[in-house]
Amino acid sequence: MTVKRKLYGLAALGILIAAIVAAAAVYGVAAMSSASHSIFNNALLVNKNVSTLVVLFEQSRTFVRGVNANTSKDEIARADAAFNVIDQKLADTSIDVFRSITNEGVREAVTAFIAALDQSRRVATEIFESWKAGDAEKAARLYDEDGRNEAAMREALSTLTAFLDRLADQELSALEETQRTTTLVAIAVAAAVPFLIVIAFLVARQIATPIAALTFAARDVERRKFEPRSIEAVAGQRNELGSLARVFQKMAVDVQRREEELEGLVHERTRDLEAKNELLEKQHKRMETELDIARSLQGAMLPQRMPKHPSYSGRAIMRPARELGGDFYDFFVIGEDEIGLVIADVSGKGVPAAFFMAISRTVLQSSAREGRSAGDCLAETNSILCEQNPLDMFVTVFYGILNLRTGELSYANGGHNPPIIVRQSGEVAELPITGGIAMGIMPGFSYDQGSLTLEKGDTLFLYTDGISEAMDTEGREFTVDRLVASLSESHSQSLDIVVSNVTDAVSRFVGDAPQHDDITYLVVRYKGPPEPIELETIKRVEDAGSWVMKAV
Questions:
Q1: How far is the C-alpha of 12 from the C-alpha of 203, rounded, in Å?
Q2: Whether residue 448 is found in the same domain as residue 355
Q3: Which terminus of the chain has fewer CB atoms gathered within 10 Å of its CB, N or C?
Q4: Element (H, E) at 395
């Protein structure tokens, strides 16, 4: 029998075994793929769509249950507006649920769930209409019906969950069947392998010597020591191995010649790559330089120090987590007797946050300088930011107006951490919360105001969540409690020491953990109303400065 026939016979046997194994593999993969596809579709439905509906439903319930007989009409109107926004999202998401379903069983279960949800939405809408019409008795009856509708909705949700559990059980059974089939195929292949090994050994004895010669020749080609005469004996055979050896001789000579040509090309390409790497390095350095300039410009945008004044003193720090940050602070004079204090945190980090930070600061300061109250200033700024927000970013803001004569601080909060006040007596507490959402999310919101009076020696500490949420190497946060503890003695310390104590406390807690968020805070101490002679002196200095600027 010729080598060709022997190889054909061995190949045919190998193909047969491979076909059996391949058929079993295809069967197993097809079964598992079908079951996995069913689980995927239903898991996607539950995790993405139904979960979203439940979350939105709970949010809408918050507004419905938050209205009672003591709620003012304005508060009812705001709650109704917020409820309508979420209710529209519920309607849109319900449509998305039906469009994504391909399994009829899932469709029936989801239809019952959404029908109960729609009934609850209708009753909630009627509740708001009753409150707006002043019909408290009807609203009370509708609350009872709303409770029954909510129970029906949750029962439908339980039914849907049970149906999906049954689908999972069916999938498990299919997978177990696939496993049994795969096991049988593996046993069959294991039984055929010894027989195949014996046949391969018998054939290999007759072709091993020529193959070994060709192998050594291939190694010589790799080492560039190949001599064509080293496989002359094999090349002289009148079979397929002889033909292979003759082809190999010609190919080896061509390979050696081409390797020499390739070496020349490699050296040339290496020089090109080195030149390109040098260019990339220059571009990288230029980018770093531009980022350094941008960081310097961003720092220059913020006031570096508070102007000297007999009624107050202050310190501020902004340490970005990246080259550019999204936090900012600000203070500016409003009229003759008031100053504005701002602390803010933009969503995200890097260049987009830096741009949005610059826009937010400019709009807020412009609105504040027009003499608006703190709440009206935030409302105006929020409306402008919503109109100029293509990336859907937002910013949390605390804005306070300090009257230097009376010490009264009026303020509004747009979703920001409440500042901490340290009284001269040593008492440390957070400012009362006024509510209000972050700016840039939705236009038309109003912001409530709060107020308190600072006594001589009281200190106000404004900060971003980069301090309270600073993490150590184990993922634990610094927290507001630790911040309050670090400020416990600040009433008897200078502002430089207060700033140093807070910075050191955060650094000790974080340790070697990387900074994951911008760290920014503004510290202001009220020194009491200025003496009349001091105000007159300050006014003369300001007038002289204005005259000099006009002369220049």
A1: 14
A2: yes
A3: C
A4: strand 395-403
Of 237, 271, 301, which marks where a domain is finished? Answer: 301
Kindly report the three-state secondary structure assignment for every residue of 339-366.
Answer: EEEEEEEECCCHHHHHHHHHHHHHHHHH
- 351 burial (CB, 10 Å; 0-12 / 13-18 / 19+) is middle
Q: Are residues 373 and 494 in the same domain?
A: yes
Cβ(206)–Cβ(2) under 8 Å?
no
Distance (Å, whole) CA 113 – CA 50: 9
Q: Which residues constitute the domain of residue 272?
A: 227-301
Task: Please give the backbone phi and psi of residue 25, each rounded to the nearest 5 degrees, phi first.
Answer: -65, -40
Residue range 146-204, pLDDT digits in tens: 788 778 777 877 887 777 677 767 766 766 776 677 677 668 766 765 766 666 556 55
CATH number, domain with residue 526: 3.60.40.10
> Do 184 and 297 reside in the same domain of the chain?
no
- Condensed to tens digits (0 to 9), the pLDDT of residues 257-307 reads 788 788 888 888 888 888 888 888 888 777 766 666 666 665 566 787 777
Burial degree of 463 (CB within 10 A; 0-12, 13-18, 19+): buried
Backbone dihedral angles phi then psi of residue 320, each to the nearest 5 degrees: -70, 150
Q: How many domains does the chain have?
A: 3
Q: β-strand 459-463 against 519-526: which pairing, if any?
A: antiparallel
Pick the last residue of a domain from 301, 324, 339. Answer: 301
217: in domain: no
Give the other-Cβ count within 10 Å of 204's Cβ.
Answer: 12
The verdict on residue 72 lying in a domain is yes
Distance between CA 317 and CA 340 in Å, rounded? 17
